[in-house]
Amino acid sequence: MRDRGWWSLTALSGALTVMAGAFAAHALQGQLTERMLAAFETGVRYQAWHTLAMLGVLAWRASRPHRGQSLVLALWTAGIALFSGSLYAMALTGLGGLGWITPFGGVLMIGGWLALAACALWARPDQSESGST
C-alpha cells in the first residue's frame, strides 16, 4: 500500500481527536476554566478538520499522485502538532507561556492550504479533463 505511513499517521490523528474530544467533554468539565476548556476544544476542532482534509488528500493522491501532496500533508501534520498540541498542553498544564507556539501551528496549517491550492493548479489534467476547462 502506497503512503502507509501517512495513512497510519492520519488514522492515529483521528483516534486522538476522538479521545481528546471525549476527554474534554467528560473529564475536563469543571476541572478547567471556561477559557482553557474552550482552548482545548479549539485544538480538537482544528485537529479534526485537518485530519479529515488529510484523508481527502490521501484519497486524491491514491488516484492522482502529485509531488506537492506530501508537502501539504507534512505542513498539516506539523500544524496539528504545534497548534492543537500547544492548546492541549496549555489547558492541561496551566502554562499560558506555551501560547506563543500556537500561531506557528496556525501558519503551518494555512501554508498547507496554500500548498494544496498550488497542487490543484499545477496538477496535470488527465485526458478526460483536458477539454473541460
TrEMBL record:
The chain crosses the membrane at residues 43-60, 72-91, 97-123. Residues 1-27 form the signal peptide. It is a multi-pass membrane protein. Keywords: Membrane, Signal, Transmembrane, Transmembrane helix. It holds the Pfam family DUF423. GO terms for cellular component: plasma membrane. It is found in: Membrane. PANTHER family: TRANSMEMBRANE PROTEIN 256 (PTHR43461:SF1). Belongs to the UPF0382 family. This is DUF423 domain-containing protein. It comes from Billgrantia kenyensis. The lineage of its organism: Bacteria, Pseudomonadati, Pseudomonadota, Gammaproteobacteria, Oceanospirillales.
